[in-house]
């Protein structure tokens, strides 16, 4: 497991996908820079750049970068070896098939996690720099908390898209539909249907994290509340649910390679 | 090592990969012989646990192969697919597969170096596989199959794309492994290649086992199929009349414009032995001789009929 994990990390680093994820991870950084450049416009409204960090995190990281990256990395966990026709080298080794999948999943989580940490750090510094170093340190818990949420999201989304990648011929298409169709819509709908979306639980965690940033009358809070309507369950419960969902999909991913055959044709 | 297949079938939807195979393989070299699309690769994938039998059983030393990774401990496999993690160098690739097999870094280093040396790839071991020629890729693929010194080796068309020297050394290596008591299964669609490696073959076509056993018996079976031979020479009329005197020559077609005759013989071996003397005695200069029928495809078609 240990070697496979390292092998897949290297595999990921050498794939073109990592360049694309790196480019995508620049989007929030560019966005933060634009906000910084437009600082005078926000000042007129009494809004500080620093106070917009939660919105940027939710919109760009939790809603955009996290699922999009998960689609590309998750669907490639098995898909890469099938498309690259390198699967026989893995399947004919005396290693359990679940080890192959889990090693690849973990390597994907770690690698994308590192990219997110860097991207978020740069975004955080850009947006929080107006308060100087002490301001950066003061809100470090916000940065670390956001990292935690994104990481947790990756742990759930990646195996989900891995299952899609193992089962479907066009996993990216369905993944995009799921992310920007189902996930983006359902979590804002009234009633209980929102409990069937992963982003709903990530929103709960984000709300609790960013709540400390605003007073109850804060106008920006009202904007965030568009996303964070749920108060029904605790953060701990949300984390547990997300981990349970992740567990189910990790199990399914591992089972998939265990049960499914891959008929690889010559290229 | 003992491999046993009982009523083994594999189908993909409506397509039959292998059909009701029944065989036992023991140590030594065994050739899976059959034309392209015969089911050899499917069979090797079943044997290496990549595919699950649709029906019947497949056992290695009494253990089922599908989803039984422990059986693979002593198995080496050289796939037909010409695909790699191209960013790796040759030695890194072999080392990586050894590490996946559970060897420590120092063991993997030593074994990879040995395997690369056996396959005469030392000179190119530090180049990326992406830059390798077809023959080099084939040799590095072989290296990963033998690096962990397995007792059971499956080689899917191992000589494909190899240069003559590479072919020769690989054939010798396979024979050597057989003599050492390892079980080596080699698939090929070229009869003479298999003949050089082993006496024992399984003849497969359309997913069915046509014949099993000693290559000479199967050779006889193949030889009983009328073989066409085309000859271009300077005295086609004389050669035609002389050839028609022999009973084994079933027919002769003459093409005077191109100085070419095509005969059909029931005894290719006798025909080939007789021809040089016939040419010498009658001062016939043979420019070329080939057998358009020699490809396995037509022989298999004949056997299936």
What would you say this structure looks like, in words?
The complex is a heterodimer of chains A (267) and B (305). Chain A has one domain. Chain A is built from 13 helices and no strands. Chain A has helices at 2-13, 16-37, 39-44, 53-74, 76-83, 87-91, 97-128, 132-138, 140-167, 171-186, 198-211, 219-225, 235-259. In chain A, α4 (53-74) packs antiparallel against α7. A 6-stranded mixed beta sheet of chain B has the order 6-7-8-3-9-10, sandwiched between helices. Chain B has a 4-stranded antiparallel beta sheet with strand order 2-1-4-5, covered by helices on one side. The mean pLDDT of chain B is 88. Chain B folds into 2 domains: 3-220, 3-Layer(aba) Sandwich (Rossmann fold), CATH 3.40.50.300; 224-304, 2-Layer Sandwich (Alpha-Beta Plaits). Chain B is built from 10 helices and 14 strands. In chain B, β1 and β2 (15-25) form a beta hairpin. The A-B interface holds A 3-4, 7, 11, 14, 84-97, 258, 261-264, 266-267 and B 12, 45, 48-52, 67, 69-73, 75, 77, 79-85, 87, 96-97, 99-102, 144.
- Radius of gyration of chain B, in Å, reads 23 Å
What general form of chain A does the structure show?
globular
The structural domain count of chain B equals 2
Derived structural class of chain B: alpha/beta
Q: What level of helicity do the residues of chain A show?
A: over 70%
Contiguous runs where pLDDT drops below 50 for at least 5 residues of chain B: none
CATH topology of the largest domain in chain B: Rossmann fold
Q: Give the quaternary arrangement of the chains.
A: heterodimer
Fourth-level CATH superfamily of the largest domain in chain B: P-loop containing nucleotide triphosphate hydrolases
Q: What is the mean predicted local confidence, pLDDT of chain B?
A: 88
Nearest-integer average pLDDT of chain A: 86
> Separation of termini of chain B?
35 Å
Radius of gyration of chain A: 20 Å
Contiguous runs where pLDDT drops below 50 for at least 5 residues of chain A: none
**Globular, elongated, flat, extended or rod-shaped: what is the shape of chain B?**
globular
Strand residue content of chain B: 25-35%
Question: How many E strands of chain A?
Answer: 0
Largest sheet of chain A: none
